[in-house]
Every structure is written in C-alpha cells, then in structure tokens.
Amino acid sequence: MYVVYLNYFRPIDEVEALLQPHIDWLDRYFACGDFIAAGRKDPRTGGMLLVKEMDRARLDGILAEDPFVAVAHYEVTKVNVTRAAGAFAGLKDL
After folding, report:
1. DSSP, residue by residue, 60-92
2. Where would I find the YCII-related domain in this sequence (predicted)?
3. Could you tell me if 69 and 63 are in contact, meaning their C-beta atoms sit under 8 angstroms apart?
4. 46 with 7: CB under 8 angstroms?
5. Under a CB-based contact definition with an 8 Å cutoff, are residues 44 and 25 in contact?
6. Would you give per-residue pLDDT tens digits along the chain (94 residues)?
7. Which of 50, 53, 85, 89 is a Cys-bridge partner for 37, taking CB atoms 3.0 to 4.6 Å apart?
C-alpha cells in the first residue's frame, strides 16, 4: 500500500477554491476501491491518503488527476504492512 502526503504550497483560499473538485476526485477512487482512507493534516497544511497496492505508474496517473495538483506537492511512500491491530488486520492484504 501507499501513504501519500499532500503538502500545500499555495494559500488556503486557493485550496478552498478547489475543494469540491478534489472531493469528487476522492469519491471516484474510493468508489472503485483504490483509496482506503483520507484526511486533513492538523494543522491544515495538507492531507494524507492511504492507497491500496498498485503499479506506481498507475498511482502517479491517479494523483495527476487530482485538482489539488495546482496547490499541493505529493510525497508518496510505499509501505508493506506486516502488523496491524485486530480491527485493521485487513491492511496486511492491501
């Protein structure tokens, strides 16, 4: 799986202007099962995505479709989950 951190490089008002298209993009990839979790950083300097295992080129293509590409940089880390608490055991198979 991948952990993707979004780090805003533009002012928050520019981020807000793209929020609904970004949410629509998130909804599309949650619906097809590619995204596992998403949320804002606190303080609000960006966000985080958990993404299921896939070819890295495919992930890069998905991230390039995000409207936030105009306001955020993406830091992608591949993670091989080997341990998880009971409620999250399914993460080991993603």
Report:
1. HHHHHT-GGGGTEEEEEEE-------GGGGGGG
2. 1-79
3. yes
4. yes
5. no
6. 999 999 999 999 999 999 999 999 999 999 999 999 999 999 999 999 999 999 999 999 999 999 999 999 999 999 998 888 888 877 777 7
7. 50
Distance CA 49, CA 7 (A): 12
- The pair of structure tokens assigned to 93 is 């198979």
Query: pTM of the full predicted structure?
Result: 0.91
Spatial distance between the Cα atoms of 10 and 20, rounded to a whole number of angstroms: 17
Of 23, 37, 18, 41, residue with least CA distance to 90: 37
Q: Return d(Cα 76, Cα 4) in angstroms, integer.
A: 5
Distance CA 51, CA 2 (A): 5
11: three-class secondary structure by DSSP: coil
**Half-sphere exposure of residue 75: CA atoms within 13 angstroms, side-chain side:** 8
